[in-house]
Amino acid sequence: IDARDTFNADRLANAASILEGRGVSDAQAKIDRYKALIDKWEELVTPGMTPEELGALRTEEIWSKIDLTSYGS
């Protein structure tokens, strides 16, 4: 896990300037949101969760918050 965290930190260290150079606005805010979501899901997903539990978690945390009647319009 330490190696993964180091890799991700190194990868994201210059990401904002690279993304802004490619025309992405508010790149650092998007990176911060990405990091927050990773932290959130690392807390939610636990070792030994069944596929059914993961599916229920996905439904609760993602799909239940989307208005499917207007999504994409």
What does this structure look like?
The chain is mainly α and 73 residues long. The protein has a domain at 2-47. 66% of the residues lie in helices and 0% in strands. The chain has four helices and no strands. The protein has helices spanning 2-13, 15-21, 27-44, 51-61. The termini are far apart. This is C4-dicarboxylate ABC transporter substrate-binding protein. It comes from Alloyangia mangrovi.
Give the DSSP E fraction (strand runs of 2 or more residues).
under 5%
**Which regions contain 5 or more consecutive residues with pLDDT less than 50?**
none
Q: If you average the pLDDT, what whole number results?
A: 93
Structural class: mainly alpha
Give the overall form. flat
How many strand units? 0
Largest sheet: none
Rg computed from alpha carbons, rounded to a whole number of angstroms = 16 Å
Helix run count: 4
Spell out the helices and strands N to C: HHHH
Helix percentage range? 55-70%
Euclidean distance between termini CA atoms: 40 Å
